[in-house]
Specification:
Layout: H1 2-19, E1 28-32, H2 38-46, E2 51-54, H3 57-67, E3 72-75, H4 84-90, E4 93-97, H5 100-112, E5 117-122, H6 139-146, E6 152-158, H7 171-183, E7 188-190, H8 197-202, E8 207-210, H9 212-215
Parallel strand pairs: 1-2, 1-8, 2-3, 3-4, 4-5, 5-6, 6-7
The structure holds pyridoxal-5'-phosphate.
Length: about 220
């Protein structure tokens, strides 16, 4: 049952937060619905978890039409500039800003609908070649260049850690993202998924993106 699984995830978040001397309320659970059906998504919303993560604009569009404002929508996957208009229309927070070109596109679309678009910058802290995200050493310059875009608001950083069977393997990457964010005056940290969200919370995550632990069929 979805609500049971949600409660388990929320308990795990709460325990991890307390271990780290943090308040569980400071961690937002984003339910990643990319592989969930509409019945399960509605069950999730009715259980009180209303922040949903989708990794593709196109997939989110259908769900957005059905569910709309009953949920708060997060774009967690890579965004192409030609999809910026749709992204700005649907998503409260775009987690995957990773270039100046994309910043310009999002800003332009946000301006058209008089929206200040909240974004996170995706950073590839692990250095894996296959990952999206900017290099840590390019953050200061990107932040500086983005200042010219009045319809963008950068709230923090996001990262995707390498696949691993061991949650502890992610800890150094989470710590690195936290150091980078705090060093640049940024507060929000989107990090941690099913494989490692408990460790992410210990390391300061303010948003965890959890899919399989909530929606996977046994
Ligand atoms: C799918 C996805 C998640 C959730 O992963 P799970 O293993 O299902 O918890 C988190 N972040 C991103 C960017 C994703 O694409």
């Amino acid at each position: 049952m979805i609500d049971e699984k949600l409660r388990k995830v929320q308990d795990t978040i709460g325990e991890a937060a307390r271990r780290a001397g943090r308040s569980p309320q400071d961690v937002r659970l984003i339910a990643v619905t990319k592989e969930a059906n509409s019945v399960d998504i509605l069950a999730c919303i009715h259980s009180g978890v209303k922040e949903l993560g989708e990794n593709r604009v196109k997939d989110a569009d259908l769900k957005y039409r059905a569910i709309g404002d009953q949920a708060v929508w997060h774009l967690i996957g890579h965004l192409q500039t030609n999809k910026a208009a749709d992204a700005v229309r649907m998503f409260s927070l775009i987690h995957s800003l990773d270039s100046l070109r994309l910043a310009k596109a999002i800003d332009g679309q946000a301006k058209k609908i008089h929206k200040i678009q909240d974004v996170l910058i995706e950073v590839n802290v692990s250095g894996e070649a296959a990952k999206f995200g900017i290099r840590p050493e390019d953050l200061v310059r990107l932040l500086d260049e983005i200042k010219q875009y009045a319809n963008l608001r950068v709230l923090g950083l996001m990262t995707v850690t390498p696949l691993s069977g061991d949650p502890e393997a992610s800890r150094p990457y989470f710590a690195a993202l936290r150091t980078l964010a705090y060093g640049n005056g940024l507060k929000e940290l989107s990090m941690g998924m099913t494989q490692d969200y408990m460790v992410a919370v210990e390391e300061g995550a303010t948003m965890v993106r959890v899919g399989r632990a909530i929606f996977a069929q046994e």
